[in-house]
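Case study 2.
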Amino acid sequence: MKYVPQLTGLRGLTALMIFVVHAVKDGFLPKAFLDGAYNKPAIIAFFILSGYLITRIYLQRTFNRDNLQSYFVARSARILPLYFFTLFASLIITKTFYPNFHYDFSTPFKFITTLFLINSPYEPWTIPVEFQLYLCFILLWFLSQKTKLSSYAWSLILGFSLLMVSIGIAFYIHKTPHIMPSMAIFFFGGAMVAMSEQQNKLSFFQKPFMLWIGRICLFLFILMPFTKTYLKFLFIGGWYDPFLLLLLFTFFISLIANSEHFFILGMKPVVLFGEISYGFYMAHRPVLKIMQAHFGTSYFHLALVFFATIALAVLSYKLIEEPSRNWLVKKFK
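Prediction:
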């Protein structure tokens, strides 16, 4: 698969949006119209991107033991080293010198469910969900090649079946849970975008007027606080808001069809930030919490948090993510 820097830039953009969400929650930024504006859109975009990338890279490969092993090693090496490092480092910090550390995995239930990728509290909740979706993709991969139904059909079946599970749980607990079935529809939606690209079915989105519609959707996504304020009548709220999903998928499909025209996402600083965005995402909330508890919540303190988190993310990328990924891939491939 050809490297598309704009997709890395999009990953960085979603991480930055989550940072803004938590900066608002922790008192660094005024709530006003910022409160909650980016949370769901950023997470939905992340899972759309994840489903697209996995499908684009692997679905057309033959489903056999060697490719399955290659897939599992590559996906595990991508997300698990930093995830487990965060778990054990947080446990040591909490148990030794800072009991108020934000990532408190000291209770047996939290530790075990996080360790075995069942469910995780705090910001790392997305990692078990993503890993479980990787396992669901294996089923899509197998069914697409071993049955007569198309990959499109299986994506719809899997996505909507898991969505029904999520809705059933939501009726029982009165909110949409942060679990894999809740995010599956976005992941498999991204997978269907990849299938359309592979079958050359995105030509409509390459028309000039659709390119501009895609750019407008990106603009509305980036300025989501204003979008939700001034176009409030278009939103019904929740994870499955039709207008929000229309906006995000229109932008994403346009990005895939015309990636070179989305220069903002392809700018070098944005792409570089995207490359370290995993470490940034995992580290940002504890740093915010420490600054809030011991120093202050001014804009100056927020700037310190931002650059300190970038520094930690660079260290994570250079000392944990890259070395461990290269070692695991080399050893098990």
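The first helix runs from residue 5 to 25.
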